[in-house]
Amino acid sequence: MEMEDLIKKFKEYSTQDTTLLELAWNFSKEAHAQQKRASDDLYFTHCQAVADILAGFRMDQETIAAGLLHDVLEDTKITPDSIKKDFGPEICDLVQGVTKIETLKFSSRDVAQAENWRRMLLATAKDIRVIVIKLADRLHNMRTLNFLTREKQLEISHETISLYAPLSQRLGMFQIKSELEDLSFKYMHPDEFNSLSAKVQLRFAKREKLLEDFKAVLETQLAPTQIPHRILARAKNLFSIYRKMEKQEKPFEDIQDALGVRIITDTVVNCYALLGMVHSVFKPLAGSFTDYIAVPKMNLYRSLHTTVMAPSGELVEIQIRTDEMHHTSEYGIAAHWRYKMGEGGKDAHLNEKLNWLRQWMEWLQDLSSPREFIESFKTDLELDQIFIFTPKGEVKPLPMNATPIDFAYLIHSDIGDTCIGAKVNNKMVRLDHELKSGDICEILTRRNSAPKKDWLGIVKTAGARSHIRKYLREHGQPLE
Ligand code: MN
Could you tell me the pTM of the whole model? Predict the structure, then answer.
């Protein structure tokens, strides 16, 4: 890839001036000079590749320039001052942010990693672009992992699958998440990867006919409506199938894996119009419809989901979304960053969307042990969410198996602290009751009541846990 190719790719989505980008290209090339990678390629090829991935996410010039420069502080004699002088404080901060993460050496598998990760995430709260650069860096390292020793491959894959893939998922960056998972899977379990990959391809080929028939029926119905649409078959992430096999202890042949189809259109109104159309042609499976447009997931994901029966009797999982939702679902937070840049200033809407991230960071600061951090990180990461209603009809998202105490703290920390009981669908329940999606939950409080230590064993969210700990600590109750 030449500099002209990168500039061309950038200009396809941005009108920003590219002086800094060109400067960064030459600066990095010169700084890394004759350094080589394990593949024997020039080190600079890695910087180019990272910049290319970032341009693929449609990031702003500053991020891509920082991507080009991301390794100069660690691997060359260049100082932060000289970056600041040539590129300004913004790019310098980004490069230093990435370097800070890079230089934290992960010694042991668990505790040290978690602690490093906590620092890394806290650093991100300041600028999410640091994480996006780091993910692009990791993606390219995973793509070129074959040049490293077996031991290194295993170490890096393990770290990728346990920390970086969940992080991309949390940030709504599903495309990277899938690729990171599948690449890690390939190095961690090469035999399983190869055999599964062959089987999935075979199944996909067999299904081509089903997909064609399904598309044909749908197209006939859609043609007269003139609603713009694209119908895409959805490729399944190999690792998620493998995880399902492990979890259900079943061979591939016994894993229920419906054909996945996406319909992409222009507006929200047309999403619902298409949904109506689909349901009028194919019989929907009861209870399969979920509206993530009206109630988006915490990671910004929006789409309509439904499962219908094809004429052949096979089940087809359908996702209906707009182009913008599609971009967001692939690139998550990175996609939203672009909108902010496009508007050239502060975007209140974006801030609101990222609020959960900030809130989450605050909770993390409160957790005392790295072990606890990792636990809460994993719990809150679960994609399976339930939606609980307040008596006034507001919807609140919670992780699976959440309790009324989690719900109380989600509404307000004072409600959580003074909670003495709860009614679910008008019936009194215990505080360790497991909430189910669609429940209406009412919290009963009493002034001067206080959180109990044993609540820590009941709650499922990091938010509730951190508030309880904070209260106990401030009121002189030892935690251990
Ligand atoms: Mn790097």
Answer: 0.69
